[in-house]
Amino acid sequence: MSVGRYSATRRWTWELFEPDLGGKLGYYTDWFIMTLIAVNVAMVILETVDALAIAYSGAFYYFELFSVAVFTIEYLGRVWSAVDNPAYEGPITGRLEFASRPLLIVDFLAIIPFYLTVVGVQADLRFLRALRLIRLFRLLKLARYSTAMQSFGLVIEEKKEKLILAFSANLLLLVIASSAMYYIENPHQPEAFSSIPQAFWWGVATLTTVGYGDVHPITPLGQFVGAVVAMLGIGLFALPASILASGFIEQAENDEKSADYCPHCGEKIE
Amino acid sequence: MSVGRYSATRRWTWELFEPDLGGKLGYYTDWFIMTLIAVNVAMVILETVDALAIAYSGAFYYFELFSVAVFTIEYLGRVWSAVDNPAYEGPITGRLEFASRPLLIVDFLAIIPFYLTVVGVQADLRFLRALRLIRLFRLLKLARYSTAMQSFGLVIEEKKEKLILAFSANLLLLVIASSAMYYIENPHQPEAFSSIPQAFWWGVATLTTVGYGDVHPITPLGQFVGAVVAMLGIGLFALPASILASGFIEQAENDEKSADYCPHCGEKIE
Amino acid sequence: MSVGRYSATRRWTWELFEPDLGGKLGYYTDWFIMTLIAVNVAMVILETVDALAIAYSGAFYYFELFSVAVFTIEYLGRVWSAVDNPAYEGPITGRLEFASRPLLIVDFLAIIPFYLTVVGVQADLRFLRALRLIRLFRLLKLARYSTAMQSFGLVIEEKKEKLILAFSANLLLLVIASSAMYYIENPHQPEAFSSIPQAFWWGVATLTTVGYGDVHPITPLGQFVGAVVAMLGIGLFALPASILASGFIEQAENDEKSADYCPHCGEKIE
Amino acid sequence: MSVGRYSATRRWTWELFEPDLGGKLGYYTDWFIMTLIAVNVAMVILETVDALAIAYSGAFYYFELFSVAVFTIEYLGRVWSAVDNPAYEGPITGRLEFASRPLLIVDFLAIIPFYLTVVGVQADLRFLRALRLIRLFRLLKLARYSTAMQSFGLVIEEKKEKLILAFSANLLLLVIASSAMYYIENPHQPEAFSSIPQAFWWGVATLTTVGYGDVHPITPLGQFVGAVVAMLGIGLFALPASILASGFIEQAENDEKSADYCPHCGEKIE
Question: What structural domains and CATH numbers belong to chain B?
Fold first, then answer.
């Protein structure tokens, strides 16, 4: 009986953290965890504002304690109950396999800095805490079943080859343009164009039309080449935008075609 | 008879300020008010140019008097005659309900700063006067019945879900990119990247390709991450542009199809 | 006979300068004049480079003489022979009417600065000489009959209402954003945001994503508003691009539809 | 027999370097050469970083030796065996004709700087070594047979006339805008707007929305003209993006149509 209760609790725990099963319990837990992640990220962000960090240090600390507690329970609960998932059977191997999934590793890294501080590790764990930001990607799960998300995925899948080619062509343009600019400008601006990798910084700023202005050609030849590159950079926008546009339109037309029946006589209209 | 004359005047006032009734009177009043709003906004703008404010202080003052007078008459007239609108019956509740509509509140806020100055309030009402700029939105009413406006509305309505998802994905990218840049650049530029919210300023300037150049990464790692973010930022343009394009095209095709007839039974397909 | 020869010469002159008549003579003259305009514009541009202006002052001067001579002959010839065009009959009224067409006025303004200098007018005629640049627009005539030019014209004509609305919405956004930024930043940057018209300079640089960086908000509230405006500015690109895209696609589809006949049985396919 | 062995070796060499013949040998050589080019370019790029150039000078040198050796063998092998290609018959004329193809000249220029250094030429050959970057274009060969590459080519071919017209219109706008800005700003910023060609640098930065910020108008009139140009510059993006989008969509529709059958006679319509 105690074994039965144990396995029932484990099964309940699994359902608690598994919104995809369609149960009400998992649905509410999911929303709670998602909200906590969002607020947690807001806290990580606001804590970097010195004025707020000092004024509300207590609130930040207690919210931190609460968050880590909930995330720890969630993490342990999910790993413990993972064996109820047919894909992760076996008390040790199944759990290890489950825990080594990328999302679970992120979840683990999100809570471990706190415990390391507790046991006295003196290293700078600020960067590790930033890992909590990566949990933001879990919010994307909310959009997983939306038709818009599926539509985006299908269009990108459909146009994958063209998008990769457009990206490659731009990368090629970036390498050629930045190298040329290095050879032209380096003798006149040894600081700004100290090497070709450094010139990439100018190249990206120009091709994407961001144009910070911290680095720019000053020689007539450099400015001529820069102008040509900036003009070509417009393709960097035009190509992906037009590829995606054609993808969305084809999709809409296919959707319509698969459902084109005359409402009067019921015959399919081709 | 006096009651009859009173109610006739009120009805006439209502029609005077209600262009949607289709009467000629309302049409001309509407154009007059719209023009006055446009000129008024031009005045608010030009008055901030010191040279003009000093040279034409008298003209500005008298035009102000005239505008406030007209807007006050319009405001009182509309509230008084609101009860002639079946939706706002009841001498007090109807008028209060009418006056609490957002557009009417803006109209009220646009004239009240003048009277507060008159009765001796010494506060800085410059900002309140700027509320008059909000009245600019009333000019959009002119486009209300245009087919272009309706087309825009329909396309945005149709593509709402995709546009929101594209916006959310960009917001997520903004949070991740700005946070990462804070952790990378803060030790080297404690002023420019003093906190994550401050780093958002860099993030938006980069993702939208505005690139003022007041804040930009200076470390090699920061510049590498910045370059990747700038590249990804191109999606910020490509996604909404391609979504809207597909929306406009589908609309045009549906318009055409609405005049299509089934080839099997000859009935019109709507 | 002398009258006949006179009128034959005049008719020949008219055909010489009128490429639209389809004659070989007009065609070659047109190409010669077009080329001369292009080279002339290149000269006006290069002459502003001090080094070149000094080194080749002679060449610039003689080319100037030659250009003005040709343009003067062309101008006088066209005005003199204009009466052979049925639309400009009457020796005086016809020629005056012809000479007062915008393109002819530009042609006149392009040669007159030279003669004013000759007769001793000492004014700064540099700006007037720049009028010669306006003649560049005549080069557009070369594209007049191309199908691409016609296609652009048709698409813009078709989408006129939507493009105007998109432009108006952006203008409205510019006014609201720049005014708001003036009230927010003026107390902290009285120089950069000295007036609302001055703030427009920031507004345009941000909405078009040019982002020179000479003017930008420095207060947290200003940066927040600036970030929102930059985000909204993306619509400035997305709207016209998607409107034009739908225009080009509809056009292509209509072109196809008007010529859709089965190549096997000859029946029209609807 | 020796002649037979010679010509067999030559034939084998030809197939070794000719991936288009479809043989396995050529396929593997091609991948090896392509990879070596990519790594070589990476080396040329990284060698400009002083820290790396000093720390790994030996590795750079030996990799250089190895690359030049392979590229030399490839170059000589291809020229020697070119006569096996029916298009380049004749032991001398055929090989010279083959060696004078642009790609072969680039290949020659990519290896010759090394030998010039060896024989003691003291000139600055850094720029010549940069020619090796041009070999990057050979990587495009990898994409030659991909459907995405063919699709890009067809769309650009199809829309050539419109793209050229859009480009010409922008060039015209650039000339007019930059010249106008020169006449307006030169008296106030003689350095930044020293000549019209110099003003082009501002014009390109503005029309492409790069906006470095090193040069920008400071007079009210200059800023007004600059704002108008920046607004018009949006067309620089909208036109090519929408032209390409319509090209991709028409292409997709034609692909679909190629499998359509006439509803009247049932024949396939190609």
Answer: 3-145 (1.20.120.350), 160-255 (1.10.287.70)
